[in-house]
Amino acid sequence: MSAIENKIDFTVILSVKNANPNGDPLNGNRPRENYDGHGEISDVCLKRKIRNRMQDLGEAVFVQSDDRSNDSCKSLKDRADSCKPLAEAIKKKNTELAVKTACEEWIDVRSFGQLFAFKGSDASIGIRGPVSLHPAFSVDTVDISSIQITKSVNSTPSEKRGSDTMGMKHRVDFGLYVFYGSVNCQLAEKTGFSDADAEVLKKALCTLFENDASSARPEGSMEVCRVVWWRHNNKSGQYSSAKVHGSVHVTPKSPSPQSFADYEVVIDDLEGLSAEIIEDPENAFRN
Length: 287
Description:
31% strand
């Protein structure tokens, strides 16, 4: 398939209610915040969720979570070695063929890029991907609730019962988050990222939290509220990504918003560039 011929920009608005969207392991797994008190979801976390959705949609993914692995590979090196044409190209130090093979094999490689550098190997191959993501930040400052939890059972039969083990669990009471992204045509030409791949990416963004529930993120606690998708009429784009992303304004309609309905979303008109507004993303792709 040929690479995309039109630059793409997108904006995703999502809500969090009584959930921990992205815990910080260096801060007791509390939801991430910036210094101003606005909630944050890292771009790495967002890419993990997109990869999971791409995998759910039947696409081959290189960077798989251990608990979602759908092959017998136990590591990235195992997965790279299992692709015989790639392993042979790396062995022969044929970088061009290795890049072409990896991009054809895995959608996340041709989307986000990948570094192939393994211990004991004298070859290192870096691939720059065309899809870039910003971290998500909440529109307003977020309130974080912390509760103490206990363990009321023994872990092993021989364990001597003592005082209940204490722990902490944290959640964002409510927050509306926004993140932005783009697809660069020049880099897409190098990885082969196609229009079909762009549609998979769009579907993954719209269904970002499907099959993503956990004790920290109960089913329904996180929701994609709005996706805005721009397709420019050329490779470089009619406007800069900064101007396109800046055309979306999300403002609260009440002093203490508790849902997406408490916000107003205004999208500025950009002459010659129309926005595809997906207002019910999570149901837009259901049969």
